[in-house]
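Q&A FORM
Asked by: J.P.
Topic: structure of Adipocyte plasma membrane-associated protein-like

PROVIDED:
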Amino acid sequence: MTWTSTMSSGYSSLEEDSEEFFFTARTSFFRKPPGKVTEKKDVEKERELRTEFSREEIRHKIEHYNCLTKDHLKMTLAQSGVYTGFIKVQMDLRRPVTVHGGQRGGTVQKEAFYLPRGVSNTLHISSNNTVREVIVALLNKFTVADNPAKYALYKRYRREEQAYVCKLADGEQPLFLRLVSGPDADTLSFVLREQQTGEVIMWDAFSIPELRNFLRILDKEEEEQREAIICRYNSYRHRLQDALWGRPGSVLSSPDVIALQLCFRQCSVKSRRTNPRRLSNMLSCGSLLVVLLAVSAGLYMLPSPIHPRPHILKGPPPELVGPLAVNNRLHNGRRLFSGELHGPESFTADENGHVYTGTVDGKLWRISPDDSLTLITQMGQNLPECGSSPDYEPLCGRPHGVRLDADGQLIVADSYLGLFSVDVKTGAKKLLLSNSEGADGVPFSFLNGLDISSQTGMIYFTDSSSRWGRRHVKLEVLELNSLGRLVSFDPQTQKVKVLLDSLFMPNGIVLSPDEDFLLLAETSVGRVLRFWLKGPKAGTKEVVMDNMIGYPDNIRLSDHGTFLVGITTPRFRRFLPPFLDMIAPYPAVKRFLAKVIPLTWYNLLLPRYALVLELGLDGELVGTLHDPEGRLTWAISDVFQHRGRTYLGNTELSFLPVLERWEN
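REPLIED BY: S.T.
REPLY: Here is the structure written out as tokens.
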């Protein structure tokens, strides 16, 4: 989030009569006694926080702050007197939040879930931004639909080995507090919590009999809740039994239940003519059927995380003949940086021969011509857990599309954090456009492909979904929604424009040599589009390739004037149709699979097969490169050629495959 307010940089101090509640490690939750005089040094410290500084004093404080900071999150003073910097806010929400989901039936769906407690988010703000604006930005970052008035920002600090938490007024400026306190998180940190509803109970004001009476009331309410739950489950158990035995009032009448009824009745008739041991076996069989039916009913009622719609593909996958014929052209390569680069997804290079890429742990790297590896920066927080699980990606960052602009700055599309400009020499990052800002009032959830016009400097990028983040990409593919967008960003005017919407997981993009059009991969439906930027067709799209042999990822220009398409997953027809082809027309099957199958299990369905498509400038297929056994690599995300070498990207593998020569 970047704020661009042009108001004056005056500091709004704490209200003298504002109510504050202090929570310490040594005391209970008591109201701060009014009028109580604290120690002299505390009073002086509070008075310092309420002081307005001159421009020169602010400049000295910023210089001192930048000397103390250790995480490169420095402050900058503008000519107008407004200064900008970073604050970290810890999320400490005890209740579930309501977030915007996808669209269904023309209306925006909302879902409730718990945000992980203890997660810290870094925001880039100015000295003009208030507490209320910071809260709104944090909620927008997580697409929270709740009223911002439900939340409050607290400052947490230490004095004499005690931890204090104090609610901030809506008009205060957090960056001023950060500047005065310095960069040390122990001195001052910010916490987002729910608003306190009602007065703080002063339990010491009650007598022992009154407190015991409260406990009796709580015990009674707990017992009533327990009895209500038992009653509800007993009622459902009776309805299941009614359904099995065909009693009136049954709410289940599916063919499966009818079959179970017949089975039970047959078992009942036979049980009258058999010995006690066989009767016991019959009863065990019946109990098992009841359990199975109960489990099936429970799974049916369990909400599904996805809302798919039927989708009919254009036809079966094409045959592996002609330009698609199987070959071994990807065998002649080698692996670099095994165990050092984890998921190098996309590439770009400068005129000195340096190649740049981003990995799954949120890091940006430079590969020198002598194949030495240098870390440039960490896109998000540099945590030890980065790269160990997709759950840490929103904190660590995940750079996808990378390109160099005309000034030699590395433009990065981070899936979770937004669009950045990175100095490749110092690693300094500048946020151009955050995911929470989005476009047309809709935040970004999954920034992906990227390309830059060499003629105008315009940045083109894709937001693969406004619903799912990168860590849930398998749900995105399974759901098969059309919530993706093609977006442009003008670095000069800061203008954001949606060029195309309602796309099926838009992924890689590439400008044509004349920049009169760009190609765009719709991964989840196996399709490539052409979007015209110039000429009589400007602003329109057309299908270049459909019903592809696999699901396309990035598209790049080759060094010999063609387009190279990395296929992340092939779509072969063997004994059975491809898995996604089979379930595409059946939303109920997709909902069920999303409920019961862990996301990691879908990796078992992915073949270890590498495939690259080569297209002419007209979009016609002119050749392919295969690695049928996955000897060199598989699941190719990018095909980048530079100085005679071809770099093959991927999203998960722990090495970088390269081809030293290109076989025609």
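FOLLOW-UP: The longest strand covers residues 83-91.
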